Amino acid sequence: MTSVDYLVIGGGAMGMAFADTILSETDKTVAIVDKHHRPGGHWNDAYPFVRLHQPSAFYGVNSRHLGNDTIDQTGWNEGLVELASSAEVCAYFDQVMQQQFLPSGRVEYFPMCEYVGKGRFVSSVTGEAVTIDAKKVVDATYMNVTVPSTSAPSFEVAEGMRCVPLNELVGLAERPDRYVVVGAGKTGMDACLWLLGNGVSADEIVWVMPRDSWILDRALIQPGDFAARTLLAFADQMVMVAEAESIDDLFLRAESNGQLLRIDQTVKPTMYRCATVTHKELDALRSIRTIVRQGRVKSIQTDRMVLDEGEVAVTPGDLFIHCSADGLERRPVKPVFDDAAITLQTVRTCQQVFSAAFIAHVEGAYDDEAEKNELCTVVPHPDSDVDFLRTTLANSINGARWAQDERLSEWLANARLDGFSAANVDASVRAEALEKVQASGMAAAAKLATFLSEVEG
Ligand SMILES: Cc1cc2nc3c(=O)[nH]c(=O)nc-3n(C[C@H](O)[C@H](O)[C@H](O)COP(=O)(O)OP(=O)(O)OC[C@H]3O[C@@H](n4cnc5c(N)ncnc54)[C@H](O)[C@@H]3O)c2cc1C
Predict the structure, then answer these.
(1) Which pLDDT belongs to residue 424?
(2) Given ligand 1 and candidates 352, 359, 378, which is best to mutate, with the most ligand atoms within 8 Å of its CB?
(3) CA 268 from chain center: how many Å?
(4) Region 206-229: what's the mean pLDDT?
(5) Which among 95, 173, 294, 397 counts the fewest CB atoms within 10 Å?
(6) Residue of the nearest CA to atom 34 in ligand 1?
(7) Was domain 152-212+262-322 assigned CATH 3.40.309.10?
(8) Which pTM does this prediction carry?
(9) How far apart are alpha carbons 426 and 424 in whole angstroms?
(10) Where are the domains of the chain?
């Protein structure tokens, strides 16, 4: 039986980012078990036209750059730093495994294997069961990412009606009468943008939008020369929060200073899930006029689509595009460190790979479990509009705690996956932003806590 320091279940982005930091910062050994044939997790199942939603510069593992920080000259992301495609993300993680992890002699990799518990996993190719003796087991599957190609829609589809995951758009043999995009998260937005980008008229698209969403402006989430803007926008956010008079006022201020966007300015969003777009994308999405705001789809019948709050006439000539998987499930919070178990979760909103690398650093650099858990206080995935407040507050509390620790601050300042790191931001801009955050941070945190107590009772 093989024996290792860490048995990592899941070779997706989080498992890889965790393993990378352990390998870089300690002399420990790691085994990685994954059901897929290569690392990268859900990126192996993603729709072919997916790209990262945030710049490549912040993604992947801490020790290896992803992409070249090229500024896109064309397309929806024009003028902003490149976003890796799913093929690039998969190739990148494969290189990390083949060129770094395996040659280190400290990693064993078990693809095509399902973990069944107690150090045991079974190969789906040979049926062979292997048990590994590990000092610690790292659960890198807990976030439970699901994508449309691997999870059937939750609604019924009558015989004769066509409903496909958006992956199948690229293989369509003939044009349907209308494209009915089911889901208005980032995946639904991507489906609409792909259709529009391929010449489909906005009039041929029906967009089922159970909830409207507050959306982030990608121009404010940029590395390199742009990072200053990102950091100053964060500092401005603290000032804006401190000055807000109510929750509604806070959202309006965030919108008027460009930090939050929405598709329709006459509809109050009730969702916030870190979806990120450019203004070009937003303008294109706004060209879609047939938006169904009647809750979630319950069934697709041969003549109508039944939703929570009504029905819409449809025909067998319509193509329904399933974009309703939960890629950002809100999971119950668990302690990250629990004796011999480590459960990877987010310690900064929607920054999964940063969080996994951060947790690995804390694992390697600190001994006391209570302190480790305090440093790695989980910031659960947002879902509702009010979660924007919750995550902003939780991020600020974590950030303030980390700033008290000199060694940790130094690590953060050099972490590639931390968009606010010194590697990404000029020192004078950091100082300016820090001054703003220090001046308004406490007031902003108090204001957020007050607003939250109003809604939570
Ligand atoms: C379309 C899309 C775009 C995104 N874009 C960005 C972005 O730009 N920037 C960003 O920071 N985040 C982005 N995210 C968030 C993204 O989910 C994470 O960054 C990250 O890829 C998630 O990785 P993971 O390791 O948590 O999960 P996964 O990719 O799901 O990896 C988990 C792995 O565990 C394996 N597994 C599960 N159970 C078992 C078992 N019992 N035995 C063995 N193996 C098992 C699975 O097969 C899988 O390979 C995006 C997400 C989606 C869906």
Answers:
(1) 63
(2) 352
(3) 23
(4) 87
(5) 173
(6) 10
(7) no
(8) 0.96
(9) 7
(10) 2-145+328-375, 152-212+262-322
